[in-house]
Amino acid sequence: MHASSIYGHVLQCYGSLLMLGVIALILSPVNAKEPCDFFDTVNVTGDRRLTDGSYVHENVTIPAAQVAQYSYIYKYRGEKIEVEPHLRGCICHLKPCLNVCNGWGNMKLNRSESSLNITFLDGSTSLVDVAEQFVLQEQRICKEMYLLLPEDNFSWLLNEKAVLWEEVQNINRTKADFCVTQFEWPKASGQYSIQPAVCIETSEFVVKTQINGIVMWLSIPFMLLTIAVYLIIPELRKCNGKLLACWLSSLSIAYSIHPTLAFGIHTQYSIGCKLAGYSIYYFIMAAFLWHNAMSFDTWRTVRNITGLTIIHFVRSGASRLDRE
After folding, report:
1. End-to-end Cα distance, the chain
2. Domain limits at 275?
C-alpha cells in the first residue's frame, strides 16, 4: 500500500509536469518554426506584449502565431550573421513594409519632406506620410545600389503595397529590390526628399557583362590588324577601304572603353564614369555614321556597275543589229 501510494504520487507529479509543459507550449509566443521570411519581420524584443502573447509594434498588433525566435540577422541580402536569439514578428504580413537604407531616425526630414505621392490600386494618387502608410524597416538590401536621382531624369512610382515602378526599365520592384533614403535636392539647398535606391543587377548578370567585355577586348587586336592591312596595301587604300578603316577605328575605341564599366574600374557617378559613358556613346554613334557612309558607297558602286552593264548590253545589241 505504501509502495503503490508512492508510485501514485510520482505519476501525479509527472502528469502535472506534462500538463504544465503543454500549457507553456500553447501560451508561448515563440514558435519552433519561423513563420515567415526574415525580411518580413521586425525586432519586437522591446515592444509591449499583450496577455494573449501578441506584440504591439508601431500600433500594429502581431499575433503570437506570427512571432518567433531568430538567432541571426542579415547585414545585406545573402550575408547572414549569427546573433543572440531574439524575438521577431511577421509585421509585413499585416501591413505593407518599406525598407529604409540608413535608418529612419538618421534622416533629416520634416513632416512635409517625409511625404510621398502614393499610387493606389484604383489608379488615384495621394500625398501621404511614409511613416504612417508603411512599416519602416531599417534594412539596406544590397551592397551595390544606385539612386533614382531627379537630376538623371529617373521617373518612378510607389504604390500602396510598397511596389516600386521604374520607368527606365519598365519594371515593378518589390521591397526585396530597393530601399529609400534621403537626398538633398536641389543640391546645397538644405531641402531633403525621399528617393529610392535600387539594387544593381545580380552577380549572374555581372558575370555575363564581364564576359562580353572580355570578348570585346579580344576582338580589338583583330580590328587593328584589319585596319593596318587596309592602310598599308595600296590597292586597298580606296574610298571603301578608308571608310572600313574609320568604322573599325570607332568600334575599337568604343570596345576598349566599354569593358571598364563592366569591371567597375570607374566609381559610379564619378567624372571618369561619366566621361567613359559619353565617349562610348560618341564613338558608337560615329561607327554607325561611318557604316551609313559605307552603305552609301556600296550602293553607288553597285548602281554604277549596273548602269555600265546596261550601257554595255545596249551597245552590244546595237552593234549586233548594225552587223546584220
Report:
1. 148
2. 203-322
